[in-house]
From TrEMBL:
GO cellular component: membrane
Species per Swiss-Prot/TrEMBL record: Hymenobacter montanus
Family under the similarity heading: Belongs to the autoinducer-2 exporter (AI-2E) (TC 2.A.86) family.
UniProt lineage: Bacteria, Pseudomonadati, Bacteroidota, Cytophagia, Cytophagales
Protein name: AI-2E family transporter
Lipid bilayer topology: Multi-pass membrane protein
InterPro entries the record matches: AI-2E-like
Subcellular location: Membrane
Superkingdom, taxonomy of origin: Bacteria
Keywords: Membrane, Transmembrane, Transmembrane helix
Spans traversing the lipid bilayer: 12-30, 66-88, 144-162, 198-219, 225-246, 258-276, 296-324
Amino acid sequence: MENIYTPQQRHVLLIAALLGLAGLIVVGLAQYLTAFLAAGILFVVFRPWWVALVHKRQWNRRLVTIMLLLVTLVTLVIPFYALSSLLIDRLVAFARHPEQILNVLHRLERATGFQITQQQNVRQLLQQGAVQVSRWLPTLAGSALNFLVIVGLMLFTMYYMFMQEDGFLRGLHRYLPFRNQTLEELGDSLKNNVNANVLGQVLVALVQALLTGVTLWIFGVPDALFWTVVAFFMAFLPVLGTPLVWGPAALYQFSQGANTQGIGILLVGFIVIINVDNLLRIVLAKRMGDIHPLVTLVGLVLGVEIFGIIGLVVGPLLVSYLLVLMQVFRRENRLGRPGSV
C-alpha cells in the first residue's frame, strides 16, 4: 500500500512525534523534575569516587552504588530536610507570634525616631517569607509523601545511572545532536558548574555560617544555633548572603542597649566574615570551576525561581550552556557549516 508521505515528511513527522511525546512526559513529571535533575548533579559529584573504586580498584559495581546512595541519604537528604524544616517552623512561629520582633522594632523606632512598620505589616512579611521559603525547600510544611516520592525517584535514578553507566554515556553521545567536541565542552561546563555551585558553594556557606554563629554566640545574641542554620541558607544568595543575618543581629543588640556587642558584630561581619567569603570564592573559583560571577548571579535568580533549591546549580548551568552553544554556533558559522553542531 502506497504511503502518502515523502521520506522527508516522514522524517519531520517522526521528529515532531518524538518531541511531542517528550513534552507530554516532561509536563506530566514537572513536579518531580527536580528529582531527575538532582540525580544528574549527584552523578557528576560522585563519579570521581565511582571511577576510583569501580574502574581502578575493581570493586563490586552494585556495592559501590549502594554505598553512594547511603552517603547521599545520610549526608545530604536527612540533614537538609531537618534543617529546612527547622527554618520553616521557626518562620511560621514568628508569623503567628511576632511580638518578639515587634518589640525589637519598637525599640529601634524609639532610638531612631522613625516608624519602621506596623504589626500587620510585620505579620504579613513573615507569612510571605515562610511561604516563599517553603516553595524552595522540601519541608514538613509541604507534602511529606511528595518529598518521599522525589527522594525515591532521585535515588532510583542514581542507581540506574551508575549501574548502567556505559549505556547511559553511550546514549548521551548517540542521541544528543552535537559533535564530540561540543559534548566535551558541555561536559566541562557541567563539571565546572557542579564543582563551583555545589561543592564550592556548600563549603563557602558552611564556613560563613559557622563564623556567623560563633560571632552571634560570643556577642550574646539569643538562638545563635538557629541563626547559624539561617546563615547557611542565606550564604547561597550572592551579594546579600550572611549580612542578612548578622546585620539584623547587630541592630537587635543596639535596640537592647548593648552597643558594644552590636559594634563587635558589625566589625567581625565586615572585617572577617565578608573577607573570608570573598577570599574563599576566589580560591575555589580557580580550583573547582572557572565560573564568572555574573553567570552565577543570573543563574541563581533564574534557577531558584523555576526549580527551587536545586536551581542553585541548574540555573547557572543553563546560562553556561547558553554561552557554550553561542560559542559553538559562532565557530560553526565561521567555518561555513551552520547546524553541524
